[in-house]
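Hey,
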Amino acid sequence: MTRLLVAACLAAVLAVAWPCRCHAVVQRAAAPPRSLSTSSRWIVDERGRRVKLACVNWPSHLEPVLAEGLGHRPLGAIAAGVAAMGFNCVRLTWPTFLATDASYASLTVAESLRRLNLTDALAGVGANNPGVADLSLVDAFGAVVGALGASGVMVILDNHVSRSGWCCRANDGNGFFGDADFDPEVWIDGLAKMAAMFAGVGNVVGMSLRNELRGPRQNADDWYR
């Protein structure tokens, strides 16, 4: 367990250390670099000024693996609306398999929505966000990050589940190390790949390593020895 936690933390650190050559759509749209660090118990910027994160959740881990709402409003308008409401940060969720499973990464948004028979959603994406339907799922995710950056909104990449879908149930296979869809090595690989993908993207300021460890395999009692 110690090795897994160390490796996972290293993956998060790499998000600000590795140069990204993966997705130009992220690089073009991202806000200017923002340097955050810690001073005692505070998060501070490059001038030593305290930064308070006021975050809102934006799910992108459900079956379509597409940020919710893009079938109803333009991406830029949603991002600008987040900032207008006073939030400076989005917790943007993603499933591990987006980064580790080629069958996910190779799908376009249109293909993902069609396989789920979400024809109305696909029509809405085409009307409100022309061009997004033809992006791969991972590039569409990057476009969301970029739009948030263009509105001055920071992003925390939240590894919510492994297999895309609703969260959470105790027996959904995503809850704890060793569950059907929670292979620790695949999880670490996914964290490292997302860290590399978004390195150098200035508005990506952190990574949530996993959402809500749970289920019958959890070992909560071991933490209190």
